[in-house]
Amino acid sequence: MKRALITGITGQDGSYLAELLLSKGYEVHGIKRRSSLFNTDRIDHLYQDPHEANVRFKLHYGDLADSTNLIRIVQEVQPDEIYNLGAMSHVKVSFDTPEYTADVDGLGTLRLLEAVRILGLTHKTRIYQASTSELYGLVQQVPQSESTPFYPRSPYAVAKLYGYWITVNYREAYGMYACNGILFNHESPMRGETFVTRKITRGVARIAMGLQQKIYLGNLDARRDWGHARDYVEAMWRMLQQDEARDYVIATGVTTTVRDFILLAFAELGIELNFVGEGVNEVGYVVACTNPDYQVAAGQVVVAVDPAYFRPTEVELLIGDPSRAKAELGWEPQYDLPALVADMVQADVQLFRRDTVLLEAGHQILYHDE
Ligand code: NDP
Ligand code: GDR
Q: Which cofactors (predicted)?
């Protein structure tokens, strides 16, 4: 039985990857952070009672900022594969917490590689590093491939740049099987609530149900290559099953503006939108609602721009070229953008049905979007 260790198991990708590896017969170990509240919502369905026999899913307390803890866990688990998904993963927040981000996303990667080296596991343990399309940053060429130069545009991306190169260096210096997945944005119903797609799909569901009036967003012109997290964790696993370690771009090859994502998300519930105005004065208003389940009035302004969500330096355009992954890993995404949007919007509709019941029962609900 293969044994995998996942950092960031409580996150979006960690939860899908854990499911995938369990379905393949792996013993799955995950590192979770101590938190004052339970933080395992996304993986609670995978929980196995540690008192039972043959448990294949185990969690360990830990933190990428703590090297002795990482060494101890790697020693205990003796993993065949490590997936380093743990990170302070929010680009905008990295401008507020640049030092912490550098520590966890940059040095955290080094700490994990060093743990494997110190423990003499360089030839046993394969390592996946969660690299990112944010490395490309300022557009130099499109579509972006494994040979496109990097130009990071945020403390997050600069920290990930260190993670990328230290992974390459350990592969070259010590012959480790270590590779970077340069993953473009991938989303799902499990996506963190403060990333733009999930913020939109949550807002759309609540507006349709009359629970909220408006979504405030930042740069509507940014373009992203959005795929589904379920497809992308499959690529991570495939990267660690090759004869030789290499770095791969994982993307759909299709780019879409934030504005068009919004239109698609409202359309999923039968709400047609139009945008007027420019820059900070741009708004999206309802043209018509054809779904009898929802009463959203024509003319209602449902999207507005709040400059608080602008970033000091922005990444305007991402579009990936996944040719190498398709040719060498046999990887193909199963979801296109409309399927992704449908999955997310419908899941959020289900989620907020609960709130309508609570409201009818006289409870108060306050939403605080970021
Ligand atoms: P999430 O933000 O959903 O999850 C991040 C995970 O990292 C969480 O489990 C979080 O724990 C954990 N974490 C945060 N800080 C630490 C720390 N100091 N020590 C240990 N664990 C920590 O991210 P995603 O699942 O979306 O992304 C997974 C990885 O892939 C990240 O490294 C991200 O930067 C990278 N990436 C993501 C892309 C995407 O589009 N989703 C694209 C390209 C790269 P907790 O739950 O306690 O907060
Ligand atoms: P990104 O994702 O920065 O690409 O990083 P995010 O969804 O945060 O932003 C995408 C684009 O949307 C614009 N935007 C907004 N973003 C947020 N979060 N909130 C808003 O209100 C809003 N309005 C407009 C942003 O300016 C940006 O251009 C994600 C993370 O998962 C990283 O960890 C990962 O490495 C990259 O994707 C690939």
A: NADP(+)
